[in-house]
Amino acid sequence: MTETLTDIARVGVVGCGQMGAGIAEVAARSGLEVMVAETTGEALEIGRTRLLNSLAKAAERSKITEPERDAAIDRLSFTTDLGEFADRDLVIEAVVENEQVKTEIFQVLDQVVTRSDAILASNTSSIPLVKLAVATSRPDQVIGIHFFNPAPVQRLVELIPALTTSEETVLRAEAVVTGLLGKHAIRAQDRSGFVVNALLIPYLLAAVRMFESGAASREDIDNGMEMGCAHPMGPLKLADLIGLDTVASVADSMYAEFKEPLYAAPPLLQRMVDAGRLGRKSGAGFYPYA
Ligand SMILES: NC(=O)c1ccc[n+]([C@@H]2O[C@H](COP(=O)([O-])OP(=O)(O)OC[C@H]3O[C@@H](n4cnc5c(N)ncnc54)[C@H](O)[C@@H]3O)[C@@H](O)[C@H]2O)c1
Fold first, then answer.
1. Distance (Å, rounded) from C-alpha 177 to C-alpha 158?
2. Residue 20 alpha carbon to ligand 1 centre in Å
3. CA-derived radius of gyration, the chain
4. How remote is the CA of residue 246 from the centroid of ligand 1, in Å?
5. Of 67, 124, 265, 284, whose CB neighbour count within 10 A is largest?
6. Order of all β-strands in the sheet with 10-14
């Protein structure tokens, strides 16, 4: 196992939004050398600021020491050119939940990453891993490594082998996630929603439908679950935290897979996405944010 752990030192993270920034932070804090890729210089700057602010907060809250923060920053590098991922041992893709965009990235990574047994992972919440795997010439080395939001805080990671993924890849990914990153891993089959979203998304959609129908106010729905069921955050606040575009995309993938009416995104959710009200990340969702 030790041998397996030490052979992953250079990590690439594609996308530096909420999840990519969090995953890069987790990896850098764990002593790995991390390169982060974004689409444009502007997006990269926003992502870098997000990441550095989060590391600064972790130090302020004494989650890490100042020398640990500085060492993590030293391990981070940033690029807009995926060509720079040639020497990566592990790449974790965390871009928008869009099958076409992700597929193209896996095709590029397949061309670029030179190490023959590198692991190519996706943080997708719902897109079938096998579709990303077969877009490459190494479908045995593609796996889902699904972190939770915010990645530096949430302990869980779902490991999702595609039908094509080798057991060796699963074991190596598990060793990284548990041994190096200090997370708790659970395994799920390559079925849209995996374990957690398969349970969570219908619940969030039910809350949106309840709000949409006028049955209760957003505050009463959230207070109901916070004070009645001891949830740390009510469903509408949680949907805002996840991002309403992501909730809608995951719901669409799950509905496409199972044709289960409970997975169908309610009209209000789609209208809010169309209006650019994506939740916390856009400044407004079910609630306004500063
Ligand atoms: N938000 C959550 O709670 C959550 C939890 C677990 C998993 N996920 C998954 O993580 C992924 C990212 O979600 P997010 O919440 O971070 O979204 P986000 O909108 O915050 O970030 C997505 C980022 O991807 C970047 N991007 C888009 N195309 C790119 C490309 N071709 N190359 C490089 N970067 C590109 C965008 O510029 C953006 O910064 C999705 O697959 C989502 O399903 C999200």
1. 10
2. 7
3. 19
4. 8
5. 124
6. 76-79, 33-37, 10-14, 90-93, 119-122, 142-147, 156-161, 184-187
Q: How many Cα atoms are found within 13 Å in the side-chain-facing hemisphere of 151?
A: 29
Q: Is 98 an annotated catalytic residue?
A: no
How many Cβ atoms are within 10 Å of 91's Cβ, its own excluded?
A: 24
Q: Which two tokens stand for residue 244?
A: 């309403």
Q: How far apart are CA 66 and CA 69, in angstroms?
A: 5
| Residue of 25, 38, 97, 158 marked active site | 158
Q: At what angle do helices 18-29 and 66-74 cross, to 10 degrees?
A: 110
Strands 156-161, 142-147: pairing is: antiparallel
Q: Residue 209 corresponds to which tokens in the numbers above?
A: 């439908």
Q: 231 an active-site residue? A: no
Digit-by-digit pLDDT tens for the chain (290 residues) are 444 566 899 999 999 999 999 999 999 999 999 999 999 999 999 999 999 999 999 999 999 999 999 999 999 999 999 999 999 999 999 999 999 999 999 999 999 999 999 999 999 998 999 999 999 999 999 999 999 999 999 999 999 999 999 999 999 999 999 999 999 999 999 999 999 999 999 999 999 999 999 999 999 999 999 999 999 999 999 999 999 999 999 999 999 999 999 999 999 999 999 999 999 999 999 999 98
CA angle, residues 15, 155, 230, in degrees to nearest 5: 115
